[in-house]
């Protein structure tokens, strides 16, 4: 008798093969039968009319702190995610000396917009080295499986102290010690090494994380440790407009290590067609069996403007800042007063950098985000179109849109990947195996980005709801988020519905699958706020054969484990 049988579902196995009807049998957390009619079971799940897929594997998250207090890594598990990789972009909390804990928190707060008070309240520090951090994660209860990478910023500060923080060049002794720490972490089960070279990443307003200006020798020497140990992904985010300068050394590293090198690939407004050259370079590398990959979003990176978020056009208004910290009932009452509105709209504005000035003035790229959010809106729906139709200024339109829904409304600013005003280039990216789904940023950017719902969006938009261009099969969109993401990180025990694979499974009512508009909630430690996004359509999510979510509700089962590279969970 089987432990569990999922009966009568439409099985989409994650390989890209056509769907088939049949049963899934599970024993001891492992799939033991796929298709046909399975025998008797202690527990039966009726999946008639539903899709049955592998659980989603999200490889770009920042749950490094949240994983120490939240077993569900909310809201990822509500969107069918059963495995995550964290420690991306060179950010993380180990290794760390006791006197640098607060500093690491400040870096994470600045770069990834995770409130420092939340991290200070939520993290119980019981580690110093990276292996000790992994052991600490292993001890915490968890609903899903987690994997982590060792971050460059923490390694550099641990070894070099203030010299590393101030971007001094490494000495041979520094580099020797840093390599030893990366080697130790990989042997303890880290899934990779990550770094950041982008000027978008800052903390304390104008400081860059350690590693941003690392020499080519430092980067390549640390990266080669992965090849020496024999596993791991080298993950990097850089300045998107200058990626063509980075690709030669990344290509050489991938060639030497014979291991994946993964960088963030985005379309930017200053160079909207640069992606074409980069994509061509990736295809040339893969033709030579060089594992160089672009990590891509399935939709634009969406900044969300609202009175509850930390980013909107009025954060540079002194008149607004006077009331910004008032309790919400008092603040919304003041915002409704005509004289306050007038002062905010017409008063002086603080000087800021060019990027923020551009963002807050790009009214052609600001859209209302409805309860049924559209992440590929038409130009006719932009604030600029409303300005022209109504004869009003952009700030007037934005102010009044943000006042909708009793002041809870959100506006959508597609920062990256929307230079063409559509997603046709993403349609091209998603057709090739030189890119991999990434950049959901779960756990990060709590106050102005909510792209953690990416897995649900991939199915709803790309296989069903898109009206402005080509779509994909459900089978293709499942594969992008299961087998493909598992394979790049060497998670060969999961990602498909095949006999012998781990029973991480989603059961989905495809027709009812939908996203709601993001909303701000105040449920983090110390009363911290974060954006979350509800969805419908997940009937059940299983990890190792145990149901962790059923009809959008957590069951209380916590079968998740810390993953160690090269080992099964």
UniProtKB/TrEMBL annotation:
A Pfam family that the UniProt record links to this protein: Amidohydro_3
Transmembrane stretches in the record are none
Alphabetical list of SUPFAM superfamilies matching this protein? Composite domain of metallo-dependent hydrolases, Metallo-dependent hydrolases
- Amidohydrolase domain location, by residue? 43-549
* CDD domains cross-referenced by the UniProt entry: D-aminoacylase (cd01297)
According to UniProt, the name of this protein is: Amidohydrolase family protein
